[in-house]
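Hi, does anyone understand the following?
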Amino acid sequence: MATIREVARIAGVSPATVSRVMNGTAKVDDEKRQRVMEAIHQTSFQPNELARALFKQSSKLVGLIVPNIENPFFSELAKAIEEEAYSRGYHILLCSSNNDTNKEQMNINMLGKMKADGVILITNGDHTEEMIANCSLPVIVVDRHVAECGEIAFIESDHYKGGRLAAQCLVDRGCRNIVCLRGPQTFTSGTLRFRGYQDVCRENGIEIRYIDTAYSFESGCKAARQMLKRFPDADGVVAANDMVAISAYKVFRSTGIRVPEDIQLVGFDDIRFSSLVSPEITTIRQPVQKMGRRAVEIIYKYVNGEAYDTECVFDVELIERETTKKV
């Protein structure tokens, strides 16, 4: 493998000049630059990216830590982040923590050693605040709002409005016995969506009913079965997310309950699967592309000393499909 000294020898310049050409750290006249570029091409020289990172204190690497890559919402968010990062000359290192705080900490430590430019963190951990406070890298928290503890920014959608939109959609379509399959109340996403549902119920004189669930398909199936036993007269369901909505539909169908004729159903996220299943899921859309792009943009601006938004709350919208009745 060619070295920087060999490139310098062929180009008739010093190794320092080769370095300046590659890194753009100083002006080099056009004739020398051309000789260096021809020598690089001739030798197929590949710079040592780790050494470059140590020298420039920037690896052009961004860490993305998600709680569970199997969740389609996180997969779609990761795709949006990777595409934006690539357009800005960055690489993404994806880490799935499996909801393990210790694994999250290990990933952050690894990213620090690799001189990552920043960390985009989506966490379900119990000790996130302490972990962020002790992190030497700039951290952006996405889809969860943790207590202010050293993150440079947080990005989320308007979960409260989404909860309201979902519940109001069912009220407007005649539902009076609405159950919320509510997400984890340790997450701001779960608490705010549930609060929106509660407020709409109170405003319309509707009893507040709920079953706790995680954001997974398996947990959604279990919650839906519990719901049918506790609230057999339910005519509307606000689901924690689209995966829970899809699992609830599967349970309803297996017991002979028709959607939307007997029970109407609203999900949350608008993952791609929600429009691929049949019936298609009425849902609350989070602008996942905008959220992913903004996370990368903030890291880019932070690294380059530019001003950036520290709090980003994106609007949501109701997407009406086939699991609710037409007005």
